[in-house]
Structure formats: structure tokens, C-alpha cells
Specification:
Blueprint: E1 7-12, H1 15-27, E2 32-37, E3 58-62, H2 71-79, E4 87-92, H3 100-105, E5 110-113, H4 118-126, H5 140-147, E6 153-157, H6 161-172, E7 177-181, H7 184-192, E8 201-205, H8 212-221, E9 231-235, H9 240-248, E10 253-256, H10 261-290, H11 302-308, H12 313-327, H13 330-339, H14 343-360, H15 365-377, H16 383-408
Parallel strand pairs: 1-2, 1-3, 3-4, 4-5, 6-7, 6-8, 8-9, 9-10
Helix pairs in contact: 1-14, 7-8, 13-14, 14-15, 15-16
């Protein structure tokens, strides 16, 4: 397969995870890889009105549950004049079998479940384009259509009486419990009366760029307990500027006014299923995490490493063990490569070390490895002076990991 001409965009909120995936793609020989942070500028990546614009061949989109950041972007491809990538690949921590019907409707073609290996990416790149295959056991959507998403609670914050009535009616036909607030202040008061997970999502009108409701969203996002509460904005179709403002406020998605029943259902079912999958996996993960001991080592940022692994302690420990097994001999390998001036091998070892150190949370190792790789590719003699500093950071971590795993035995 010729990958030289592929154009790929990696989109996500976690810059480290995006960079790691970009590095994997470069290893596979793909040169044209862009990284798009999930903010208002991401819409510019799909501007179909420029003379030289071409659609991306692939978009890899990080897909966190239960907030589904990225859903706004996927929906906007059909509602606004944006150039849809030829293939859309979601990256997630959980199996999404029960959501495949909804994802296919959004144009998703592939799903990658972490941890991601280069061969998994290569398999997707090499496969012919096709719609996302819906597993035979993914029948939950059909059942939901019959029973409604009963038990789902939604807080509707809407100033206009006519819109309140229309949207409430659209929600209630799917057996959703709807609480209504007139304005942001009343909405905050309604939220304060319940636990942070009482509502599955909040619908809030944001048609006017300067409004009380914008201040309400900003206030909610500043409170830790509401960071994972999905907030959906109600907008008019022409209001692209509102979408841009909303994405910077970390609003998760939008619903066009007046509401279309199919779009209301799509939104409700996505978040209903997302919350279901997330709750089951999160509870199981908490139970597993409690029994797993992690090493506390200077130079190893556990919080960053766990963030990259979706707070999955078992996965993080497995990746750490892989790093230990594969790089325990890196000192000897690097020394051997330097002794023979094997610049290609030095660059390869430094590149691999850089990516793993980034993923595992080694903030001092990763930039040193990056600099060494750069100098080695230029065959610059200055690389010899950089090796001691890198080894000074790597050796103590490997020594502590050696103690950790030997004690564990």
C-alpha cells in the first residue's frame, strides 16, 4: 500500500495522546499528518470553500465517554458546509458494539479500542473503504425505539415559551423526564438541588452570543463535579459562530431548532447508551484499580500516564511492564549504536523511547529522546553529548522498575 499521499488528521483534547498517535502514523511511513486540537479552529480543517482544499483521507477522532466530545463535529458535517473526511476512525477506551447503529448514521467507518498498536492502525489504513459493520448482537437500538430511553433525565434551559413547549414535547415522546428552567440562573439552581449525576444531560439555548446562558455554562465547567455532565446547546442552523463559541466552552454537542424528531432521538440514544457503557466499565474499572499497586518513582508522572490510559490501572501497568522488558537493554543498545556510529539505529531507538515515555508520563525523558532523535537523523556529532543526559533520566527509572517487579515476584 502506498501511504505517501495519504492526508490524515488526528483530533482530540489530549495533546499527548494525539502526538503519540501521530508518531505511530509516521512510523508507518505517513508524512502528511495534521493534529487538530478540539477547539473552534478544528472547523477550519474542513473548509470546503478554499481553492486548494481536499478532504482528508482519514480522521482519527478521540471519543471520550460519557461526554462524547467530538459528537458536535460529526453532526456538523451534515448540517453545515464542511468537508467530511473520506473515513472517520473513532478511538475509545471501551467496546461500542451497542452504539454502532448511531455511529454509522454519523459516517463513522472504523473504531479502535485502546491500547492501540501500529498493526491495528495499518489494518485500517490498508482495508478498503466501507460503512461501519454493525455487529449481529447490536440490537439495543431497536429495543430502545420501542421502549424509549426511560429513566433518562434532562434539564432544559430555554428562555422562549414556544421553544420550551416544542422541545419538551419532542423529549417526552421518548419517555424522558424533563425538568424546565427559564434562564441560566434558574438552571443552576435546579442542578444544585440534585446530585451531579442526576441529569443525563443539559439542553441550553445559546442562540445569542452574549447571554446569561454563556456565563452559566462557563460557571458549570469551572465546577469539578460537572466536568463530565454532557451539555448540549440549542441553536439555529445558521449560527456557525455559536458552534465555534460553544466548542471553546467545552459544550459537547448541539441540537438545531426547531427540533427534528429523528435528530432528537439520535442525540438521546447516543448519550443514553454512552452513559450505560461508561457506568458499567467505570464501576468494573474502579473495582480492578483498587487491587492494583502502581510504582511510585521519581521522574514517572502517574497522573499523566493514567490520563493517557483512561485511568485504567491494569492497562498502565501492562504498558509499563512492556517498557521495562523492551527498554531494559536500551543503555547497552544505544552505547553499541554510538560505538559504530549507526545513526539510523540511534534515531530508531530514540524515536521509540520518545513515544513510550510520552505515553507513560516521563516528562524529562521524552524531550531528551526527541532531541537525540533529531540530532541522529542529521548525523550530528552533538548527539554524543546528549546521550549522558538521557541516560541519567532513564537509568534510575529502569532501576526502580527492576526493584518493583522483582519485589512483586
Amino acid at each position: 500500500m502506498n501511504t505517501a499521499n495519504l492526508r490524515i488528521l488526528v483530533v482530540g483534547e489530549n495533546s499527548t495522546a494525539c502526538t503519540n498517535l501521530s508518531e505511530f502514523l509516521h512510523v508507518l511511513g505517513i508524512v502528511n499528518v495534521d493534529i487538530g486540537e478540539y477547539n473552534n479552529a478544528v472547523f477550519d480543517c474542513f473548509n470546503a470553500n478554499t481553492a486548494d482544499s481536499k478532504p482528508y483521507d482519514f480522521m482519527f477522532l478521540h471519543w471520550p465517554l460519557p461526554t462524547l466530545n467530538g459528537l458536535m463535529l460529526l453532526r456538523s458535517f451534515k448540517d453545515y458546509e464542511l468537508q467530511r473526511p473520506k473515513r472517520i476512525v473513532l478511538i475509545t477506551h471501551y467496546e461500542l458494539d451497542n452504539m454502532f447503529s448511531q455511529l454509522q448514521g454519523l459516517g463513522v467507518t472504523d473504531v479502535l479500542v485502546r491500547p492501540i498498536l501500529p498493526q491495528m492502525i495499518w489494518k485500517i489504513l490498508a482495508a478498503p473503504p466501507k460503512l461501519l459493520a454493525i455487529p449481529t448482537n447490536a440490537g439495543l437500538d431497536a429495543n430502545l425505539r420501542k421502549t424509549g430511553v426511560s429513566g433518562m433525565r434532562v434539564l432544559l434551559i430555554e428562555d422562549k415559551p414556544a421553544d420550551r413547549a416544542l422541545i419538551s414535547k419532542a423529549l417526552q415522546q421518548f419517555a424522558v423526564k424533563v425538568d424546565v428552567a427559564i434562564g441560566g440562573s434558574e438552571g443552576v439552581g435546579e442542578l444544585a438541588q440534585h446530585s451531579s449525576d442526576y441529569y443525563t444531560l443539559v439542553l441550553i439555548s445559546l442562540e445569542v452570543l452574549k447571554s446569561e446562558n454563556y456565563r452559566t455554562v462557563k460557571k458549570l465547567r469551572e465546577e469539578l463535579k460537572y466536568t463530565e455532565l454532557p451539555i448540549i446547546m440549542l441553536v439555529a442552523k445558521h449560527a456557525m459562530g455559536v458552534l465555534r463559541r460553544g466548542i471553546d466552552l467545552t459544550i459537547n454537542c448541539y441540537l438545531l431548532k426547531p427540533p427534528n424528531n429523528d435528530e432528537v432521538w439520535e442525540l438521546l440514544s447516543m448519550y443514553y447508551l454512552s452513559n450505560l457503557v461508561w457506568s458499567v466499565n467505570k464501576n468494573a474499572q474502579k473495582s480492578d484499580n483498587a487491587s492494583i499497586k502502581l510504582p511510585v518513582i521519581p521522574g514517572l508522572d502517574l497522573s499523566q500516564g493514567l490520563l493517557n490510559c483512561g485511568d485504567d490501572h491494569e492497562l498502565y501497568l501492562a504498558l509499563l511492564l512492556s517498557f521495562y522488558n523492551e527498554h531494559n537493554g536500551i543503555i547497552a543498545n544505544l552505547s553499541k549504536a554510538f560505538a559504530t556510529c549507526n545513526w539510523q539505529e540511534i534515531a530508531r531507538l530514540a524515536h521509540t523511547l520518545k513515544g513510550l515515555a510520552n505515553m507513560l508520563g516521563m516528562p524529562y525523558v521524552s524531550p531528551l529522546a526527541k532531541d537525540l532523535e533529531h540530532e541522529a537523523r542529521l548525523e550530528n556529532q552533538g548527539a554524543f553529548d546528549m546521550l549522558p543526559n538521557l541516560l541519567d533520566e532513564v537509568e534510575p527509572i529502569l532501576a526502580e522498575l527492576d526493584r518493583f517487579y522483582n519485589v512483586a515476584k
